Amino acid sequence: MQNKRIVVTGGSRGIGLGMVEALVARGAQVTVVARDRERLAAVARALGVTTIAGDVTDPSLAATVLREVSPEVLILNAGAAPEMAPLHEQTWEAFSNIWNTDVKATFHWIQQALRQPLARGSRVLVTSSGAAIGGSPLSGGYAGAKRMQWLMSDYANGNELGIKFQTLVPRQIMDTDLGRAAAASYAKGKNITIEQFLATFGKPLSPRQVGEHVVTILTDAAHANTTAFELRGETGIRPL
Asked: Disulfide-capable partner of 143 in 49, 136, 205, 229 (CB 3.0 to 4.6 Å)?
């Protein structure tokens, strides 16, 4: 990973930050793209990365970043927090928010990766969710949106440009801001604590562990042609 140019969207917190930490530890030249300027400044101070503040759903931002950075690896991780409520209590605005952020951003960045295009041999990793497989009844349109991201990544692999698209599918809720909000809703329904609910997944999976798995995926030739990966605390990386 030494000196590889890598762009991580949503890399200022949670899973994205765990990825950035692991990549920087291997000597990669990381550019972090996110909205929150204060968080970006903190990440830049702590890790020495380049940062770009902006709305990842803006296609012009995607075009500019990819043109100016010319990354060898692009990790699409940015996303919104879903409204946690059962279906009959959701508004359409809340239900569709993930589609208008996560899916929209992935759509535009994948398009730009193919249109510019990125150099032959480049890798694009898209962060999906285990909800894309098992559903998530308390998070509105989240599960469908995460499945759509996965599908778009698969569709993009039909290119003849030598660009590889791969999807990351964490199969458990993690102890992040987003994860704890989701865990709180499901734990309440089961009348247990957040910690007890998180423990139902077995061995925890931390953001930094996700980052370490990403490094393995990018450096181990055995993972070069796999299109999707399950990530778990107990079993690590498993091709899907």
From this structure: 136
